[in-house]
Structures are given as structure tokens and as C-alpha cells.
Amino acid sequence: MNIVENFDLYAPRLINKKELLSAGHRACTGCAEVLAVRLMCKALGENTVIASATGCMEIVSSMYPTTAWEVPWIHVAFENAAAVAAGVEAGLAGLRKKGKIDDRYIKVVGMAGDGGTMDIGFQALSGAMERGHDMLFVCFDNEAYMNTGIQRSSGTPMGASTTTAPAGKISSGQKTWKKNMPEIMVAHGVSYVATACPSYPLDFIRKVEKAKSIKGPSYIHCFSVCPTGWRCGSHLAIAMGRLAVESGVFPLYEVENGKYKMSSEMPKKLKPVKDYFKAQGRFRHLGEEEVKTIQHKVESEYQKILDKAKYLKAWD
Ligand SMILES: Cc1ncc(C[n+]2csc(CCOP(=O)(O)OP(=O)(O)O)c2C)c(N)n1
Ligand code: SF4
Ligand SMILES: [Mg+2]
User: Fold this and answer.
1) Which ligand is nearest to the CA of 111?
2) pTM score
């Protein structure tokens, strides 16, 4: 039977049709981050409690007096999503022990942007992961502080122009390499760490389902294309995510109990980074030499992951 022609027959087995982030939110047109949140909710299902830091996904989903959330959802400060999620998890465990709630498994999830994860929320996340809470944390990385006006974060890639690291006569945008957050989580001994991108929805859902099944801490780093902040067409969000993966800028892989595995979505041969840069205004000022330096860095970082997963060099 042809899966494409008989999609309706197969789709229910692949994707939960129920929307737990409803339509009517206020995300920008073409926002890949809100698509990722939708997919995450589908994979998690109803027995979920989410603690969400201040950031785009909070701003667009909970404008008073409305909400797009169909699961229990707590809006917390910019810096403490992981601490609140850890507290909810401990509270639920206590209530269960006292027989005050039923035995149903409830997944507790903390979520934040790159700023709320890698910068100001880092301490809370590090503590929650180190204490081994039974929770998932998802970083929605759009590579800057977007909802407050595109300020740089430690997730902003080298060379990208932002309002606080602008490209101009005396500066060429971001001056530092992107913080490697998935590797920092691996170093915490987190049971399951994965990178994911909504341009690959089935891979994305599979990874969230996997994290849900893990008893203990898990972490997903989600590449979230932001057409507004990256200055690319809103129709390009899915293509941009694919190019980031295909060029090795954002490799898809997972680490289960320290064991690395490349995702099958990774191509045998990487595309040049300049193909990924081309349609984005934030990289438009970069010269040939700067792009070359970034290309080298991308290749060497990618090779490190391949080595850990014992793969051959992808561009050989
Ligand atoms: C202590 C504190 N400092 C600053 C702010 C203002 N603020 C709210 S969200 C935000 C940036 C969020 O960036 P990120 O976590 O990357 O999420 P995004 O908006 O990109 O989704 C800032 C600076 C705040 N709420 N609290
Ligand atoms: S600013 Fe970017 S991440 Fe935020 S809602 Fe708009 S497109 Fe999405
Ligand atoms: Mg951000």
C-alpha cells in the first residue's frame, strides 16, 4: 500500500491529531518555533505540566485574558523555568506518595528560549539536571533574545548581526562562538540528550516521545527558525531548518546514557555553510574570509560528534 496515497490511514499511527497548543496564538507568520511547540505538545499528550520561562512562546500564547494552552501551563520568570518544573515534579511525587493523586504518569516539562536556557536560566537548569529530577527540559533556540528586540545571547552564532552586536563599519556582528549547550547537558550526565528541528517533524516527535519515556532528566535542544529576527522570508522557515541540518550548522543527534547516535536525517555529504547563510539578512554583511572561518569551525565541530558516534567523515 502506498503511504502517501493512503495518508489518512497511516497518519493517526504517526502523529497525534489532537492540538494541545490551539490556533489563534500570536506568533509571527512562518515562526518555526511555535510549530516546534505544537509538535512537542502532540508528542507529550495531555498528562503533561509545563513550566515556561518568559520569552516569545509565552508572549504569543498567553496574552491576558486568553490562552492557547490546552495542558496545565505555568508562566514563570525569565530565569527559573527549570527550578519551577523541578518543584512541580517533586510536589507531584510527594502527593503520589501520600495517595492524594492517582498513579497516572504525568510528565513535567520546563521550556525556555536560548536566553532563558543558556544565559539567565542556566543555573536553575544545571541544578535541576544535576539533582536528577524526572523532567524534560526543552530549549527553543532562535539564537537571540527575540521578543525583546533581537539582542544577542550566548546562543547567537558567530557573525550574526543583532541589535546589541550589530554589523557595521567597526563590527561584524556576534564576536563569539555559539555556546554548545547539548554537550554541556551531556557533561551533566543527563540520561537523554537530543538535538531536534521541526523541519523534520517525525524525528522531532520521536525524540520528544523518547524523552517522555525516560525516568529521570532529559534535555532537547530545538533549532527554532525565527524569520523575524533572522531577516529571512516567512515562507523559508522549514527550508532554513533543513539547510542548517544539511550544512552541519545544526547536526541532528542523540545521546542516550552517554552513547552518541547520529540521526538518520543527516546527509552523507554536507552542503556549504554559505548556502544556509544566503537567504538570511543577519549574515548578509559577512565577507568570504569570515564565511571560510565559520565553515572550518562547523566542519571541526561536526567531526567531533561523528567521532563520538564513530561515523566516517561526512564530507569525504
Ligand atoms: C531578570 C529579567 N531580565 C530581563 C527580562 C526581559 N526579558 C524577558 S524575555 C527576554 C529575552 C528572552 O530571550 P529568549 O530566552 O531567547 O526567548 P525568545 O524571546 O527569543 O523566545 C528578556 C531580556 C526579564 N523578564 N527578566
Ligand atoms: S520573533 Fe521569531 S520566534 Fe518570536 S514569534 Fe516571531 S518568528 Fe517566532
Ligand atoms: Mg531566543
Assistant:
1) 1
2) 0.95
